[in-house]
Amino acid sequence: MTQYATTPHPAKQASAVTVNAPGRLHLGFLDPGASLGRRFGSLGLVLDGISTTLEMRLAHRGDVGSDTPGDQYAAPPYASEELPRLRAHIEALKRLSGHCTPLDVRLRHVLPVHAGLGSGTQLALCSGHAFARLHGLTLDASELALALARGARSGIGVAGFEQGGLILDGGPRSATELPPVLARLPFPDEWRVLLVLDDARSGLSGPAERKAMAELPPFPQALAAHACHLALMQILPAAAEGDFAPFARGVSELQDGIGRYFAASQGGIYTSPAVARVLDWVGARHCAGIGQSSWGPTGFAILASHDEAAQAVAAARKAGVVGPTLRLEIVKGRNTGATVIHTPAVA
Predict the structure, then answer these.
(1) Phi-psi region for residue 158, left (φ > 0), alpha (ψ -120 to 50) or beta?
(2) Gap between the Cα atoms of 44 and 100, Å rounded
(3) Residue 328: which residues within 8 A CB-CB, separation 6 or more?
(4) What are 106's strand-pairing partners?
(5) Rounded to an integer, what distance in angstroms lies between the CA atom of residue 75 and that of residue 337?
(6) Based on the domain organization, do 76 and 168 belong to the same domain?
(7) Rounded to the nearest 5°, which phi and psi values hold at 211?
(8) Distance between CA atoms of residues 15 and 62, nearest Å
(9) Which residue range forms the structural domain that includes residue 120?
(10) Which of 37, 122, 323, 331 is least enclosed, having the fewest CB within 10 Å?
């Protein structure tokens, strides 16, 4: 198993590739209104224990009922809705590269779709990296993201795929450039993230997301300045020093400001009222960084330790605030990016 590397290296062709890419939290935009001319800017955290896993190899037989070799796709039932996106990525990669060899592609696990955890970007990067390694192409995550139309607003997913950790990007300079990474810090090992997932709801995506972004009111410059101040002078320094309380307060304050800005587009500060109920309950009883990742519906509470996170979950369940559509998971931050297992091609 090797760590995904961004350093240029001679491409080594493989006969089979497995890529595992972690999910991420989008902790908030800094300036969605471009008050100084540059739009967005993102703070995000890569997560351990929740990921997309894809296997790719050269196909050795045709589709069922056909003598002509063709691409083959497989996925667990819960992941089958991702197959159309996966097919589209493979077709795009074939057109761009000129490599049209039939492939056998299998999704072993996927991140929850349209849940705010970066499923679209990680699926694209998994398929792109596996395709490149399978065909001996030297393409890094940034090149693959641009080729597959990912990272238009936030660079957290691409940077997280490359290196993990707590990441700050500077927003895109243009539609053809990815946001630059301004800071990357390791996330303290003892801190934990309580994910609150609502399987009954989905966050905005595609045309609905673009429409919502276009209809947002101007983002006040004062709010953008405050968000930048929180990120640069409270959240990141606290993470660097392992000082949990100011980190948690900063994340919650950043999230509250951005949540209120997006409230009209998503029906409130949180997309899911059931998620909001749990987070409000936890936030009133614990020192925690509280918020919603991207358009949700996934919410999060960052707590100082596994024990505190487990106690919060148990108490919330006992109090009856965890609705029937919710799933609560405790995960760590992840300070490494995607991993790849490859079987070298026979010379």
Answers:
(1) alpha
(2) 36
(3) 194, 195, 196, 197, 278, 313, 316, 317, 322
(4) 55, 74
(5) 23
(6) yes
(7) -65, -45
(8) 18
(9) 2-186+334-344
(10) 37
